[in-house]
Amino acid sequence: MSATLPDLNYLTGSSTNTCNLIKDREKYFSNPLFKNRVTISYELMDKGIDEVYNHVKNKSLEGKKLLVEFIKKKAAYAVFNRLKEDEEIQCKVELISGDDNAIERERILELVTKTPNIILVATQVIEAGVDIDMDIGNKDISKLDSDEQFMGRINRSCKKDGIVYFFNYDETKGIYRDDVRANKDYSLLNEGMKKILVDKNFCEYYKPVLKGIREQYNKSFSDSNLKDFFKNSVGKLRFLEIETRMELISDDMWSISVFIARELETQNKTILDGREIWESYRALLSDNSLDYAEKEVKLSEIRALLNYFIYQVKKSDIIYNDRLGELYYIEDGEKYFKDGKIDKEKLITGIGDFI
After folding, report:
1. Which tens digit of pLDDT belongs to each residue from 107-128?
2. How would you classify residue 58: left for phi > 0, otherwise alpha for psi between -120 and 50, otherwise beta?
3. 31-199: what fold?
4. pLDDT: is 248 or 137 the higher one?
5. DSSP string spanning 215-275?
6. Where are the domains of the chain?
7. Which residues, at least 6 apart from 230, have a Cβ–Cβ distance to it below 8 Å?
């Protein structure tokens, strides 16, 4: 169940053969345990980044869990590094972003769960599918539904008093491009949107948003409007036409998997050598002496180790040392890391833009 799930029937102009799974929405979304779980503050909305930083720093001294989200990686990295270097901050400071692989993300989330006083700086990867329970949130405003998703990471257990401080730092237009929701009129800069966020009445948010989507797409596809698209392309199962029309990610935005070879220490103090693991994987793939079941078991075991070294990179002409299928191998991975975290600047200039 999601508070931000829109009624997509509006796009088709029909409610035939559809039903609402929740008949009494207000019973759930107006319940104080959901609606009033988190207090919203706008006291930082007109403040600069230094004031936001000092606010986070001061709140960290209260011994609580803090979550700080930026909509751009550059800002997240800058604040994370500043917090790490601040000797007055006594608690742990972590950063989670799209740069982290699955193993690193798991380590961070486990640490956050176990640590009572911690600052977690994040990008938008934290908004959905991440089960953490923080006390205080600070977020750079973006799309209203994203702001609500962020609030879902605060006081999830409803055992404390949660609060979220919104601020306005990076511009959303350059990030979301043609997304109707990036319009400032549909953001927390609009008093009406603030009321919607408090009341959890997101149908009022999606009415103008979905109307804008219909107008945008009908204008973009003047020779094939939405009604015609659903009647002929969808209705007649013309899959190639549907694929073209519904494309979410263009070809130049696809990512590739890169294995960055280095030596690292796991949480249980085991030393893993990425170079040795890569060679073992190569040897196992070419070993035809094993029966199918045994080989699949061994591949499963070694792929679990591969995950410690695999990162997703935006599709580009990268310089690599080896390749197995769609997995690219980069030697001397140590130079792309700083204090155990990926050095973003070296990644962009040395390999390509990590996502």
Report:
1. 999 999 999 999 999 999 888 7
2. alpha
3. Rossmann fold (3.40.50)
4. 137
5. HHHHHHTTTS-HHHIIIIIITTT-HHHHHHHT--S-GGG-EEEEEE--EEE-TTS-EEEHH
6. 31-199, 252-350
7. 12
Q: Which residues contact 354 (CB under 8 A, 6 or more apart)?
A: 98, 99, 311, 312, 313, 314, 342, 344, 347, 348
pLDDT at residue 252 greater than cutoff 90: no
Strand ranges inside the chain, DSSP E: 38-44, 65-69, 92-96, 118-122, 136-140, 162-167, 255-260, 263-265, 271-273, 310-314, 322-324, 327-330, 337-338, 341-342
Question: Rounded to the nearest 5°, which phi and psi values hold at 134?
Answer: -105, 160
Residue 235, amino acid: G
**Model confidence, pTM:** 0.79
User: pLDDT by residue (tens digit) across 273-323?
Assistant: 999 999 999 999 999 999 999 999 999 999 999 999 998 877 666 788 999
Using a 10 angstrom Cβ sphere, with 0-12 exposed, 13-18 middle and 19 or more buried, the burial of residue 274 is: buried
Confidence band for 173, pLDDT divided at 50, 70 and 90: confident
Could you tell me which residue, 260 or 129, shows the higher pLDDT?
260
**Rg for the chain, CA atoms, rounded:** 23
C-alpha 329/C-alpha 260 separation (Å) is 6
